[in-house]
Sequence to fold (276 residues):
Amino acid sequence: MDEKLEPGLYIVATPIGNLSDLSARAAAILSRADLIAVEDSRVTAKLLRHIGVKRPMTPYHDHNAESVRPALVAAMREKAVALVSDAGTPLISDPGYKLVRDARAAGAKVTTIPGPSAVIAALTLAGLPTDKFAFLGFLPAKAKARGEAIAEAAAFPGTLVFYESGPRLGAALAALRLGLGDRDAAVAREISKKFEECVTGSLAELAERYAEAPPKGEIVIVVGPPGAAEPPGEQEIDASLADAMRTLSPSRAAAEVARRLGVPKRLAYERAQRLK
Ligand code: SAM
Fold:
């Protein structure tokens, strides 16, 4: 246990809520690392206290990564440098890939200590197909960019996973419903913590539930593959057309809605003409 670690970079996954989820191997590596690169030293200090160790920490986050990376990579020649994030697996919607890239380029040993990640934990709760999934991280905050990101994802023939925050959940679900149609979905919240819950339903149901009542805590949205839900009804087609026709001509709106909801173009066109 006290044996010195080989110099290099150790990517260490940490819990996403319940500190007992830290693996024995992760604890052993953190206990012996010469230096731990951390997002927030207060968060990692709590984890180190939990396993009863004190190790030197250095900040590595979005705001200082460019300037401190060269020195960290240089340190890996002689030191065992561990990288952790505040929660879960480093590099997954967290800093780190450039550190791994530069460490490799410098010939350092790079190894990973796998463990919790909210994307995988949410997939295990949602009850949606897991054979093929795409993780899209956080959706853009601005409506236009968010709509574009969702439109890009619409054709993916598998489950989609997004990270989200409570205050933006309602708007994100409404945008997903509009962009993807009314697919089956799940909102997983506070995974592995006291108030863990996973609410399932169609995107329309979930959008309505969270429209006025933003939940607290950390959230993952999981959306099932296209075609898993009921085909869209006339009301939904008309609502989507009316929305699209605010910025597009009826024929372009019809083409866009037909693609998005998976309905025949001619049907969308006829309804758009009636709504015009
Ligand atoms: N690296 C982390 C991982 O492996 O999951 C993710 C870091 S990202 C900055 C933080 C986001 O992950 C949160 O905003 C939330 O969407 C999701 N998340 C983290 N912990 C969570 C939890 N316990 N329950 C639900 N979502 C969580």
